[in-house]
## 1
Amino acid sequence: MDRLGYQVSRRRISRIMKENCLVSNYTLAQYKIHTNSCNESNIPNIVDRDFDNRDKLEVAVSDLTYVRVGIKWNYVCTIVDLSDREIIGYSAGANKDSNLIEKAILSYRYSLNDIRVFHSDRGKEYDNKAIDEVLETFNIERSLSRKGNPYDNAVSEATNKILKIEFIYQNKFVTLEELELQLAEYIYWYNYIRIHGSLGYVTPIEYRNEAVPERAA
């Protein structure tokens, strides 16, 4: 059922797509870059794959992905609130480094004082004194995935997969400024307009607003 109240079967959707020569973006295989660098910090995985039923801003998860800008690779960092899957922070840059992550953290739409846990994988970019100082200043607890285990950061990885399929692979970016402008527009659409199956087919903002009265009761 869509948001207008129509009930449609998968078979009917498949027929309509075939008649109009439409192909889902999610069926297209894409190339992925891998890295061997690892953060060896002695920080436990306190999130422990417990991604659901979290309070607002209780846990923020982060990951990086790549994007072609001109003839070079650039990178995007996203930060997601587990409570409603809203992208609450993001950044884009030419380098895959801690500055990109710090910029994303400082772009939070909410007060940093409200974040309780910041979780990421063990990418070397997340092992940095500047990032640690920001988190310590706002009393944000750190959590890291176990080494070589992508499932420990599954929500963030899934969010970036959607970002690549729906946004990155569908556009060509000549400059970083162009990427940043279009990324801001996509993030707004993702949070305020795009419905999410994991949220009962409402947007992150709608889910957040609906959840507030229930938690306050």
## 2
Amino acid sequence: MSRTEVCPTSQHIELPCVYRVSWSHPFAWLRAGLTDFGRNWPLSLTLGMVFSLFGYAIVSHFLYKSHLAMALTAGFLLIAPFLAIGFYGISCKLEDRKAAGEDKVFSCIRNNAASIGLFGLLLAFILSGWERLSAILVALMLRGDVVSLGPFSFNVLWVAEHWQFVAAYIGFGALLAALVFAISVVSLPMMMDRKVDVVTAVITSLTVVRQNPAVMLLWAALIVILAAIGIATLFVGMVIIFPLLGHASWHAYRDLVQAG
């Protein structure tokens, strides 16, 4: 698969070269992610089970608070890049032909913990903002009986009288998810691979998206489709899908950013 190198310039920040790639590359990233999952399946599967159980428990706990149930279900995509750092570490160590044990995997986090933690706080802030926006949309556009009687069911949204709420909710959520995707598509793997600050990683990620708009749109669509399948199966599918996407994201970074 061919790549075209593009080297951005900046007067104040040293940025790595990035690559323009073809539409077939996201499928190669998924295949590479599946290979990594198979090569270290005990740890990957364990982490996948932990995050799936955590996601199911959180959403189930807030079923009687409709806006939180919706916000946290959709908000999973907003914090998923940070939750997947363990899978980036596994793929990194497998790539280096080293044992992908727990200590080895998370050593790369300690090497740049400050930047990684700061980026995690940024995603947490975005998730908090989404929760507030979700509450406002629910309060303004849904009837009280829809959100207050018993545990919340997403089935109530698929009736004609709620189409405006659904359109607004999906619209605002998609804009926020697109922003998070653009700033994080290679940011966290980059901060784990080399000691760079958050600004450098985010600008590199934005540059990657700008240089590969069609490919990034396809990659985002694949992530959303697979994540939707995982969530629709009450997070059971996430046991496999989340590790797969995490490993694949590491290979996306490797394919899109010049080695440091």
## 3
Amino acid sequence: MSDHANARSRIGVGIVGAGADRGWAGVAHIPALKALDAFEIRAVSTTRIESARATAARLGVDLAFDTHQALVVRPEVDLVVVAVKVPEHARIVSDALAAGKMVYCEWPLARDQSEAEALERLARGQGLRTIVGLQGGLHPPIRFLRDLVRQGAIGTPLSTSIRAHPTEDMWVGRYNPPFEFMARAEHGATFLSIALGHALEPLARVLGPFESLSAVVANRRGDGVRLSDGAPLPKDTPDEIVVAGVLEGGIVASLHYSAGQPAGPAMVWEIQGTEGSLRVETASGYVHFGDLAIAFRRGREPVQQLQVPPAYAASDLPIGAAAAGVARLYAQFAADIRDGTDEAPDFAVALDHHRVLDAIARSAMSGRRERHLLHADPPPTASEQPPAPTGG
């Protein structure tokens, strides 16, 4: 195939939020896309045309814009990547879908369940493929764990627990300027939605989703501080989360996410079964990326330290860990388009996890158990409308 024909066959990507100097797009999306032959970056946008042009020049891209509306209507763009702050997701995603474009939106998909439902409904109504940035389910150690459980290595799963201590400054209330918006729960980018929310996808892939739960959610550290000047910053987001519930199939589950420095491993995930157990540890505090140490015990036999077989990471690219996780999502998305499959997590998967997050918040507020989480809401009536596109 000629270079020209190959370029035409690639998925044309437009990145909203592709700043030249910093941000998740530069750390993860751009290296991932540049490493994959199935994609070609064709357009970028930021809130400042100077920044957009600088990024475009660095990438060798012709199209640079200072509004997302100008980007999503371009015929060169097949897939719009939304890599901006969570409060901006709904407007940008709805405009991209209204323009008939496939969308990759970072997690969380939206500020809450209601917004997520509207975006999922719009994508489904348009018949457009989507991706949400929940890369943890495709992480090689997670795929290996899922196969171990499915192959009966521990017998029938009985229970599971995750205790995690993500240590970033913002979780304990210390905010650099780009992250100050995360001090307010209304913006949807919290310890609950991000730190715990990312864990829901690996948990569901390995053992299944929550069927019912009870929760305690607390802001034990009080207000935060702005690191730019040391001034106090009002904070109403949690730093302690405890969830106890039952997964699909009756597996008893508990999650405790606690912000701050641990005295041991930053994350420990244990799975008990009728014939054995698994223990997963990581220094990162997150289960969805990074190196995971896996220990396995069958009955009363000695504990074994398991290595993830090389085949699980055989297709990984020589790029950083953050970019590699995003690259797996893009590669799976391209394979889904090619093969007619749907393995990459889409907006429907995102909505399932938003339902769990909202159930956690409701339970914490009411003190009551939330049930029947596996059953989706009834289809929308004809009077229900998706978010109105803003146009351009």
## 4
Amino acid sequence: MVKILIIEDDAAFNTLLKTWLTKGGFRAEGVLSAGEAMKAVQSQVYDIVLSDLRLPDTDGLTLLKWIRETSPDSAVFIMTGYADIQTAVQAIRLGAADYLEKPVDPVILKEKIDEILRKKDRPHERIPFIKGDSPASLRLYDYMMLVAPTLLSVLIAGESGTGKEYVANHIHQNSSRRDGPFVALDCGAIPRDLASSELFGHLKGSFTSAISDKKGAFEMADGGTLFLDEIGNLSPDVQMQLLRALQEGVIKPVGSSRIVEVNIRIITATNVDLKQMIEQGRFREDLYHRINEFQLNIPRLQERGQDILLFAHHFLEYANRQMKKQITGFSPEAEQLMLAYSWRGNLRELLNVVKRTVLLSEGPQIMATDLPDEIRNMQFTRPGQDAHSLKEQHERQMIIEALARTRNNRTRAARLLGVDRKTLYNKMKLYNLE
């Protein structure tokens, strides 16, 4: 069941939202402050978060940044009054999925939630896999195509957001099991007490919330491929059950004495060092060797050179179709900034940046000034600050773009660039732009 967290200090409105969502078939919880919200987000993963922009203990934008860092897979909607629409637009720049104007219309709310869930359910249908042209990308692709036709168990190692599920799905699509199901399960998003049920299924009444029989991921993947993401999050007892299922090819649903035969190929992924976890006694060594018959290491986006622009243009085409826009590309200055940026969130961060920028862009091309603050401010800084820098002509071009956008209004240009007027005047004098 889809889990939704409501952060709203108006208790009556909080209860109303919870009632609407519960009747709509969602599992909704409500909290009245940012502090309570942080405790809730740290204790479990929510598919969707509905947050008021104005909260008693902090502002919604600060909380948004924290949620995006702590729970990147949660889609955050900002709820706001008419007077705060501009701030809501800023929230989208910071990673919000969308905003909802108060009073919230339950029909619009349901439509926006359904759209987010459709995107989560069909990631491969919407954005196909692309291999890239850099040496690191080509090496990864060669190894993928080498192991795909075999029956070897594959362990995919890589940072969060590098596209591990896309790699797993591409291996499946190029294997002899391509006509069978591809079932993906995020072990990091499963409450520990439900992991066995998610993997092996359960019978009605086997535990408190088991209101009907359920097939687990193993049965659903029978004849195809089972992808277990963030496998290091499984508890020791579930690791033992998983090892037994892989070795014997049979499972037993929770609460059942029935033995079910399954025929799957297992692909797993991790963003932590499983060997280190073995040394710490937190991961079984025998399970590690069972799932790691062949290992793929996905490079960080920053290690893929010009592929950053290849992926950016690929995501741009997708965002254009999704938002019915016709953005033609990126300015040279925007491309230089994107190549220089660290992309700690990897492909996931790049996709989010492109989507937000397409939504907010007003011109035929995405300019440097359209990019989020963290990318622009990486090199456009006040004198005396320590920060990454690009060549001076990049900074000069950004000023020219900002002045053109604001019709030479220096106050607005400074605001657009994220600096004060004095800094802008000094830079203009430095680059002979007065």
